[in-house]
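so my prof wants the structure for this chain in the tokens format not the other one, which i didnt know existed until like an hour ago. anyway here's the sequence
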Amino acid sequence: MTARVLQPVGRGLARLGVTPNMVTLVGTVGVVAGSLFFYPRGDLYVGTVVITVFVLFDMLDGAVARATDASSRWGAFLDSTLDRLSDAAVFSGLLLWFIGDGDDETLAWVTLFCLVSGFGVSYIKARAEGLGVNCDVGVAERSERLVIGLVAIGLGGLDVPYVLAGGLWLLAVLSAVTIVQRLIETRNRLGEPRQHADNP
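here's what i got, hopefully its the right format
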């Protein structure tokens, strides 16, 4: 469904000479700049709107790649790497707010945990795939973590009570659970006996 919606936009960008990597770079720069400019100043709602716009723009890289038949392993690597930087910028900006004018040491620690655990979730999957096993499991993949985080931050910026703290605590718990799930899945898959070519 999402692909069908994005495809016409992707074709339009491709006709303008936009490449998938350009989309990825612009999306990442927008998320990083928005996160590190707005969030430390306490502009949580405006910052979330700006970040969301660039996150949605970044989703067009696949549509542009399909429109130009320009999919590549380098493009996939670049997209995955810059996604990590974008996620880190979101929680880094929020962390700066909490240790500054936000003045909430507890939520600063929770935000730091969300930042570190997000890297852990992604690293475990990448390392497992590097060892030749699939580890596409977990209750909170990147898209779920991003949605929970941005919704909580945006509503927090509108002074909706408890939603920011609740969202961050929920994200922290789900990230921790996902790490455990992926560690168990990877251990089980790496423990499976390898099949020989003459004994399928």
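also thought this was worth mentioning. The chain has two domains: 1-103, 104-192.
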